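Box S2. Input/output pair 1.
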Amino acid sequence: MKVCYFTATGNCLYVAKRIGGELKSIPKRMKQDRIARSDDAVGIVCPVYCGELPGMVRAFLEKASI
């Protein structure tokens, strides 16, 4: 399982580590031209701001081919 995470304070990284699997940082992945994820399961761990996903996570989901 691959777990893509975005963390500002480290809390989401802690949760991603507890879930297990191969950890992938969303900010580092956004620097690539093409984002492709394939696995039996792909998880997204991120904070929620005012009921919305952070802008970078939203952009990641639009750019990624999962």
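Box S3. Input/output pair 2.
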Amino acid sequence: MSIRIKRVREPAEPGDGTRVLVDRLWPRGVSKPAAAVDEWLPQVAPSHDLRRWFDHRPERWRRFAERYVDELLASPDAVAALEGLAKRARSGPVTLIFDSREERFNNAVALRALLRGMLSGPRRG
């Protein structure tokens, strides 16, 4: 089980496995071939309101992560996408692709933590 995170502007590498863009909007100025994304899941991105509130402010990180997980778990589409990502991660590497300049405090970091928790918990049939 390997879940990595990587900026969209970093080159794709063979070890990335399945590359999944987890932003609501396509990254400005990045072509689809250059992004080398296997799948785009805008339904697992934070809402516009939550993203604007957070504004990548470290002092809001913990609350952002909590609110983000609450948003995800309240959306059947997001839950289905998360289950698909977890299933993929069980069978090979998955790299969550994001566009933020902030590498420590962004939705991909929070999403990776959630997925790792899902993978370490009991497996459902």
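Caption for Box S3: The beta strands are 3-7, 18-21, 39-40, 94-98. The chain has one domain: 3-120.
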